[in-house]
């Protein structure tokens, strides 16, 4: 029965309400505790490190680090969290996410991620990459550099804009590792249209080939372990990809020339068809890097961009064209 507002609920109802709230808070705390453990373990495995390796980086005992990874810590101080961020080679956004999950606040404002670990040691190569970054920035299309593990070395502003709505994640940010982003980030399908057939399956096929070529590579093996922990991805990797390749051929997994669709954050553009262009120069090849550029259609709201022929798709757009090739109207 409804109670009088002036009297309020009975003591029994009040106690029941308090117990319910306490139970909900306990459940949220348990979920958060598991997330804390996952962050450290996933990032460590992504780097191909053992607990012994990370303990050595932190200059603490293996037992002490094991307690950290199990969440048996009395207090997560700034010093401990910043040491973890450095040892786990976290970017600035990853460190922000680490602090938010662990202690529900931002890292100290004076901290900045050490990006030097992604730059080559050779001075000539470092200078080349700095100039190459300026070249990439001059391009209006999303462009990024990746190595054989899909670790991202450089991005331009158009790339950052395309993925600006992506939330922080401990291991799968688009500007950290593009393969992990496509496979594991919950926001990937919000940016990459036809996410599973157009993005996941081809990249899983490329990953399988890369792992077969370098089975001892720790970074690739770490991704393989993460795929195995996801039943859907494991089924796609073991059964879906071989079937897909048998039906379409190995060339279907190639990035260069593939036509895909992305959802642009600018609502005036909406769904945009793009062609992937993969290329490398001599010096990029020496560094094991490949540049991938997404040539976005100029058509707004995902409208038609011209006829598409064949499985890979050939898109004819208005505007610039090859002078040696006559237009359809000639």
Describe this structure in words.
By secondary structure, the protein is of the alpha+beta class. It contains 13 helices and five strands. The protein has helices spanning 11-46, 51-58, 62-69, 78-87, 92-103, 123-137, 157-162, 178-184, 188-191, 195-213, 218-229, 231-248, 282-286; strands at 143-146, 152-155, 259-263, 271-279, 290-296. It has a five-stranded antiparallel beta sheet with strand order 2-1-5-4-3. Helix 2 (51-58) crosses helix 3 (62-69) and helix 10 crosses helix 12 (231-248). It starts with 10 loop residues before the first helix and ends in a 34-residue tail after the last strand. Mean pLDDT is 79; it is low at 1-10, 113-117 and 300-330.
The side-by-side strand order for the widest beta sheet comes to 2-1-5-4-3
Question: Between the first and last Cα atoms, what is the distance in angstroms?
Answer: 82 Å
**Main β-sheet, in a few words?**
5 strands, antiparallel
Poorly predicted runs: 1-10, 113-117, 300-330
Residue-averaged pLDDT: 79
| Helix-and-strand structural type | alpha+beta
β-sheet strand percentage: 5-15%
Q: What is the number of helices?
A: 13
Tell the overall outline.
globular
Compute the CA-based radius of gyration: 24 Å
In total, the number of strands is 5
The proportion of residues forming helix, as a percent range, comes to 40-55%
Order of helices and strands: HHHHHHEEHHHHHHEEHE
Layout of secondary structure:
Elements: H1 11-46, H2 51-58, H3 62-69, H4 78-87, H5 92-103, H6 123-137, E1 143-146, E2 152-155, H7 157-162, H8 178-184, H9 188-191, H10 195-213, H11 218-229, H12 231-248, E3 259-263, E4 271-279, H13 282-286, E5 290-296
Antiparallel strand pairs: 1-2, 1-5, 3-4, 4-5
Helix pairs in contact: 2-3, 10-12
